[in-house]
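We emphasize that the prediction below concerns an isolated chain of 155 residues; any contacts that depend on oligomerization or on bound cofactors are therefore not represented. The input was used exactly as deposited, without trimming of termini.
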Amino acid sequence: MSQIIQILNFEEGYKEKPYLDTLGYPTVAGGIKIGPQGASLANYTFSVPKQVGDVWKLALVNSKISEMKTYPVIVAAMAQCNPARMDILESMAYQLGVVGLSKFNKTLIFISNADFISASSEMLNSAWAKQTPSRARRHADVMRTGSYDIYKGLI
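Result of the prediction step, given as a token string:
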């Protein structure tokens, strides 16, 4: 069973009140951008309870999945994924955008060939892994093992 919302809430951090993300975008509910870069948080005077944020996030994930299905290289990789590995592709699409995920060409080819060890290594050999090393290590572990074990006690 998918754990994508729990993974995203852990990786993004959940905050009910709007905050600025690391790039300066107004954001809420664990990575949901709500305004343009540099906008003042004074423009956002609401909060999003976790239950509502989780539904909103699931709608965004479902939109990402639909978009992912328009990229043959991602579709081929998705076909080889169990639920845990699929959650990792979805998390990457959520964080990087589907276009960003599609640029992991070697990783996606390794996944489509069910070579999860090489896919994991390739994930760690990326600019993304340098930018978010802990998240990348956890994601690579799930891709390699096909299990959520690394998240036990975290989500």
